[in-house]
Design a protein that fits this description.
Layout (H helix, E strand, L loop, with lengths): L2 H12 L6 H12 L4 E4 L6 H11 L4 E5 L7 H4 E6 L4 E6 L6 E5 L6 H13 L1 E4 L2 E4 L5 E6 L12 H4 L4 E3 L6 H9 L16 H13 L4 H16 L3 E2 L3 H17 L7 H12 L4 E2 L5 H11 L5
Parallel strand pairs: 1-8, 1-9, 2-5, 5-8
Antiparallel strand pairs: 3-4, 6-7, 10-11
Helix pairs in contact: 2-10, 8-10, 9-10, 10-11, 11-12
Length: 303
């Protein structure tokens, strides 16, 4: 796969989300690693714009679901309806049967509805009335979440959080990016539409390439030491084996985006925050990035 296509994809996405190249690269790495992405941020930060741009740039079918407190699992998965004429139940697929699904404000839905995504995200299939339905490939979920202190939110259970390979925050734009955004408002109607940079088939080929990226024993030992430190030195729940796998897959994708077919410690460090922070439960005063910074600072790469 040409590195030029990947660079064109990144460049196009950066025209949509100004001044956020790292967040864009992390989101793309998550897709390449066959993971799902959770974006936690305030409204109006560009979460929906990023997901739409990703779907268009990758040629993926796309559907946005606005989660609400009265939403039911059938609103996501679909429903079987009895056909009187044929005397059979006919399955009507829900919006989850798209290659990219945006679950907007997922923590406004009830825990029962949130859990309806679990099988789909983990198995790429759903089961309704005893019948299994395979989801389209590739399949990728982007969920957005409001800060938990906002009213009308339900905390995502740990089992649901663990299904997301990465959690990122877009954050406010810097002064230059916001100025460029405001100046460009009058040009939006004349701006060229986003183009498809990769096909779904090419995306799946890249995902296959990610799996072939190599990691030396020294790199794997460094990753294990990070996980062990989180389990033994942090007062709470550390990284699970599934988290270690997610960290390795994410680091491989990051390496591929940096035009390498092997992982170096810097790849692990680049993705560690967004892979680890939502998985660690601690009773200490250190939380979030401060905690992951401590883990990275305490564990030295093995030379």
């Amino acid at each position: 796969m040409s590195a030029t296509k990947l660079q064109s994809l990144l460049s196009q996405l950066e025209t949509v989300l100004l001044g956020k190249p790292e967040q864009i690269k992390l989101a793309l790495a998550c897709i390449l690693a066959k993971g799902h992405l959770l974006i936690e941020d305030l409204p109006g930060m560009g979460k929906t714009s990023l997901s739409q741009a990703l779907a268009t740039s990758l040629g993926m079918s796309y559907q946005r679901i606005q989660f609400t407190s009265d939403m039911l699992p059938a609103d996501i998965l679909g429903v079987s309806i009895y056909q009187q004429q044929n005397q059979v139940f006919e399955f009507h697929p829900g919006p989850i049967f798209n290659q990219m699904l945006l679950a907007d404000e997922i923590n406004r839905a009830s825990p029962k509805t949130q859990s309806a995504l679990l099988e789909a995200m983990a198995e790429r299939q759903i089961t309704i009335d005893g019948e299994t339905h395979t989801l389209p490939q590739p399949f990728f979920v982007i969920a957005t979440q409001n800060p938990i202190e906002q009213s009308g939110t339900f905390p995502l259970p740990e089992s649901q959080l663990d299904r997301f390979m990465m959690r990122i925050s877009i954050g406010y734009p810097d002064e230059h990016a916001e100025l460029a955004m405001l100046k460009g408002l009058h040009q939006r109607s004349d701006a060229p539409p986003l183009t498809q940079c990769l096909s779904p088939t090419e995306l799946m080929s890249l995902q296959h390439q990610v799996q072939k990226v190599s990691a030396s024993d020294a790199v794997l030992k460094y990753l294990i030491n990070l996980a062990q430190y989180s389990r033994q030195q942090i007062d709470g729940n550390g990284l699970s084996p599934r988290a270690s796998i997610a960290l390795l897959d994410s680091a491989k994708a990051w390496a591929l985006l940096n035009h390498r077919n092997y992982v170096v410690p810097e790849d692990i460090q680049a993705v560690f925050h967004c892979v680890a922070e939502h998985r660690i439960r601690t009773n200490s005063q250190l939380q979030g990035q401060a905690l992951s910074d401590q883990i990275l600072a305490s564990v030295n790469p093995i030379s």
